[in-house]
Every structure is written in structure tokens, then in C-alpha cells.
Predict the 3D structure of the following.
Amino acid sequence: MEIISGTTGYARDIYDIAEQAWADTYGHILSQEQIDYMLDMMYSPQAIDDQINKRGHHFYLIREDASACWQGFVSYEYDYQGAHKTKLHKLYVLPSCHGLGFGRILIEKVCEDARKHGNKSVLLNMNRNNATLGFYKHMGFEIIGEEDIDIGNGFLMEDYIFEKQL
């Protein structure tokens, strides 16, 4: 298994993973118009550059040693909204790699980094219709709330808020 820190130089790899994962994860939940809008808003090279260089997000990419391409990624931010909490912003693994432990490995890496940074918990948002609910509960996350976020263009994110104590 190879894990590297993601920089803006990996923006295309991040986008490619997100595009494949989103088709599988959200294709039955969101319209293609909303998927395209959100992919551009959150995964364009400019968006990734802004997240890394202005918003303080950290990325990891993961792949099997024998793979020529990256197969998953995670992004997170320490001290979210001034609290001693790390926000896990994104976690996606190629559908062909589900069940190989990549998601677990990336979450464990974020939790380890958060502890070292002095954060007390990890937060994440997840679409309320996302089928990975059980995965996050298995990883020790608990639902602590719900929120609806207007993301523009007439679209709404309807999320659960999860938290895992460290």
C-alpha cells in the first residue's frame, strides 16, 4: 500500500477519483446536473488549489503498490471553525477498490494526524441517502445532527453530521 500527501500537482488524480466515485455513490441520489456542478465546484484544479493553499486542507492519496493510478483520497482540516476538531471533508475510493480497506486506512491516518495535532474529535458530513452510513458507524462515528446546506445554483446538500471522539 502506498500513501502520499496530496498537493495541487495531484488535482487531476483527485478529480478523476471523485468523478468515478460520485457516479457510483450519487448517481441514484442526485441529478447529473447537480453532480457536474458539485464536481466542478469542489474538485476543479482551482478548487483544489484553494482548498490546499488558502483553506488549509490536507490530502492523502492511496493505491495498491502494483497500481499505476491512485485509487482513493481523503481531505481534512485541523481546528475546524476554531475548535479542537478535525473536519474530514472528503473521502472517496474507486468503486473497484471498495472492500479493500482503503477507506479504513485513510480514516485511521486522519485520526492519527488529528491526535498528533491535539484535536479531540473528527467530524464529517454525509448525504443522508448515502449507502455508506454503516461504514462510518463501524469506524466509530456517531450521528450528532443534520444540516441542509444551500450550495448555489438551486442545489441543496442534505447531510448527516458525524463525529468520532479520539
Notes: The chain has one domain: 2-120. The chain has a mean pLDDT of 93. The chain is about 35% helix and 35% strand. The radius of gyration is 15 Å.
